[in-house]
Amino acid sequence: MGFPIQRMRRLRSSETLRRMVRETTLRSSDFIYPLFVIYGQDKKIPVNSMPGVFQFSVDRLPEEIKEIDSLKIPAVLLFGLPEHKDSVGSSAYQDNGVVQEATRLIKKICPEMLVITDVCLCEYTDHGHCGLIDQKGVVDNDATMGLLAQEALSHARAGCDIIAPSDMMDGRIGYIRKELDDNGYKDIPIMAYAAKYASSFYGPFRDAADSAPQFGDRKSYQMDGANIREALREVALDIEEGADIVMVKPALPYLDVIKAVKEKFAYPTAAYNVSGEYAMIKAAAACGWLDEERVMMEALTSIKRAGADLIITYFAKDAARVLQKL
Ligand code: PBG
């Protein structure tokens, strides 16, 4: 009798066979590409800590949108860099705000592309926190609700397809859902940043979106990285309040959370492969220490294997290009 009977290597012997028994495959339709929209004209400003990522003024978006569309990436996630910041983030909920204008433009030039808008105040407040600050210097949960709802509503009026609240205030999904429903937008889905951790992997994003908190940190509203049971409670609450898609963020250091969320709730699950995860790979590749393309595809495949149905990633264009070659 031969030894061993089961030889796992039999099915690994050629690329064709490996391709046939592969359990997880990426498609460009898995991806959502984040875009930073900046106030002003004729701007395409590189983000230093995120090679290949730019801040675009609205008039410079068409070329970028055409490229994203040609790569068959179905959706973008918009972040705004406004002209003015103040303590209540007024630029977030103006109908002529940067995100609102970008939404109108994208829906005009590429109607089939889905526009998802990030709903948060941190890019619009002078203190850089995701909500209003009370007398004691604490982020005021309930006072923030109304502003987030106004922001979501103005995105809906501009024609966005999906609302994505990223602030982590308690009760905001239900509050925003009601505001949308009461104003005739009952069919706009909410993608909730449900389990969003207070992560140091957001560093480069805060350059890109100019949204670093000016004092303190976000630990009183974003989650402690050590917790997974709490993540399941967060997701349960957002679903109860009306979330259609639930998100785990970041992705790679939290693959166990993605898996647990998918298994427990079986809801459409998004994972945000955040700025720091992107920057680490870009930096190591620039040093010649890693093969960028292979590491990127391996990382994205692992996020999907963990259970993500949707992957928000700055690699979307690069990965879609690789997939086109296959
Ligand atoms: C806004 C927001 C952040 C990210 C997405 N939405 C920053 C933060 O919470 O500090 C991070 C995305 C990334 O790092 O790529 N609240």
UniProtKB/TrEMBL annotation:
Zn(2+) binds at residues 120, 122, 130. It catalyses: 2 5-aminolevulinate = porphobilinogen + 2 H2O + H(+). Pfam families: ALAD (PF00490). Its EC number is 4.2.1.24. One of its GO terms (biological process) is protoporphyrinogen IX biosynthetic process. Mg(2+) binds at residue 234. The active site is at residues 196, 249. Coiled coil: none annotated. Its cofactor is Zn(2+). Keywords: Heme biosynthesis, Lyase, Magnesium, Metal-binding, Porphyrin biosynthesis, Zinc. PANTHER family: DELTA-AMINOLEVULINIC ACID DEHYDRATASE. This is Delta-aminolevulinic acid dehydratase.
